[in-house]
């Protein structure tokens, strides 16, 4: 049964490995993946520790559905205390690693301590060993994966690896697998680097037994057919997430030149159709029938020839709209570089856009520019900065490698206003000024500015209010510029994504993209068919609440509270200057925004300062669990 | 008309749903190791090729089988094993040029049986890299795809002149 | 007198069908979304009919039609001079 998958405690300092069972009662409370990771994070990490010290722990978790042939059930959740924000560090990665780990007998890993020399963890059919990685240190993320396969003479090995950025302790270094998959956010690759951990490699041939295999198979087939028959999935299958650009750069929901404009003029070369010229086909993660990323080839130019996967809409913003570049090829090269060095595409794009605006505003001394021409649209400067940050080369590269907050401290207080970050983490290149629900989501997300924690993307679709009420369980406005009922939308999506990340499936195949995509009801059935556990929709929502509240408690313990659930001041001061009539001239109104935060806290059962009440802790069964380290 | 399992690697997205549904259906567990079909990947150049028994017209597994245990299901076209006759010598595994015959968890030999004429891998393959269609249809599809490219070329030439 | 007109923007599948990113359509007084749609069906074929959910008679929830940036569902929505109409699909939410 899925229950026999274990957790391995791996201490890199002592070299000891202990294998333990995961109790069923814990599963019922937190499922797996992100949920269990958050439980472990709160339990094992002492408050106030240095995220780069040996006392930080890295948690890897597959989901309860990992391995099923549907919904992109190959996702893996990686958590630790974030070296970028000091808050919850948590990032989710697709590809093929999670199922392989499950085939090797494990659902969760807890990595503590620090290895004396570069090492990697090797997990093969129930056995866990720590191996020397001296020969891997310095290699990029592609070479590292290839080398491990060749060392073990097995092409089917799947690895989570870090590149140069992780080795150099760039605070937003990511963890990578395959050609493009990345646990991008919150610097989990930096934590690996701090532990001298170059990779976690796995290969498994053990059965994953499900409770009702025939029912599961039928239901997965049904879901695959339903999803691939939908319009949103066929669009994603063809253009990937780049398709979002067609909408946002028409309406004015995109940020360009850092945060100065909300439309990119003459941005036709970034339209998704442009990828036809470079793509050789699409690529899917494990168990995914949507396959949203391109396999692309760049034949000409100084970076050619190169083969890559992606790019995501995020990279289009990072190396396109935010930095004022207007060519798809710039995005393709940027995407390749971040994948190679193992650095978060969004964070690096956000921080480069910021220094470009600082340069324009005269807030960056000439000495600090390090000889770079930081004018908008200069792709060479963008590429050069990706390299310098990843390698911590030069003053600027080194300063920016520490992330927004330390960089603001060094560059000067005035620079803070232009930093589009929350809790020290960069926001996506979306402009949330016209959309209060989206703005609330990025402000309250437990891991910093983030669109994948609670974004109610379907708010943008102007759906009938009856339909919204049916989904969210209370009346609300269908106007995305309204504040009415939007806190509930964010709360509901937050629970949905917490559960999604804990069962190990892809968010794109839930109510993120489309209103008719799978949600709690479908998850209930899948959980039953895989594990025989009967968990109703209200129970699943409660599990979502438990996970989010645990994340809150972790952040509270680290000193975060309502004061940190904020938006950059520009959201309140500068109205949007471009876009369609409903979007132009919009900014967030502080008073109404604060009311939304009050409502959001009360839905979660937290007090006015964003701290879970005793009653809530009791209701969620969290009141005694966490006495250990607090 | 006889149907065939037709593989078009150009369309494969590498998701491995085919492997998983195969193992779930035949072995009742999720374990691609024992699937009859496998996607072979060259990750760093983006090539994905699903490999499975080709249900040969003149099967080598049948030729080398000393027990005469290999036979063809006339309805589905699948080459099957008569387990009453099979002694498990694995000569078929050794000689199949496609790796189409695999050794199961129980040590017995296993191969694609086309799910009795309704292959689940095909049903779940969204990009249609796997198709179970009549031979003449395969030809038509190939001709049409080639003609499409040809017509695009013609249009370009016409536009240029 | 200048004729009244609107801008129609196509993305995703609609861009594939029409092979156009943007068109300008002249309109008369009392124009509605339904009238525009009828014209588009004539011009670009039946794919545009699928925009309407035949059961509800409204714009299908897996289609995103934006009038001046606001998602609309009713086919009798009024269209006036200088409006911008976007034919799109609800995808992601960046």
CATH top level class name of chain B: Alpha Beta
Distance between the termini of chain B: 45 Å
Strand order of the largest sheet of chain B: 1-8
Tally of individual domains of chain B: 1
User: Which of globular, elongated, flat, extended, rod-shaped describes the shape of chain C?
Assistant: globular
Just name the CATH architecture of chain C: Roll
**Biggest sheet of chain C, in brief?**
5 strands, mixed
Reading off the top of the CATH hierarchy, the class of chain C is best stated as Alpha Beta
Structural class of chain C: alpha+beta
Q: What is the straight-line distance between the termini of chain C?
A: 42 Å
**How is the CATH topology of chain B named?**
Alpha-Beta Plaits
Radius of gyration of chain C: 13 Å
Uncertain stretches of chain C: none
Gross CATH architecture of chain B: 2-Layer Sandwich
In which range does the helix fraction of chain C lie? 10-25%
**What's the structural domain tally of chain C?**
1
According to CATH, the fold-level topology of chain C is: Ubiquitin-like (UB roll)
Strand order of the largest sheet of chain C: 2-1-7-4-5
- Overall shape of chain B: it is elongated
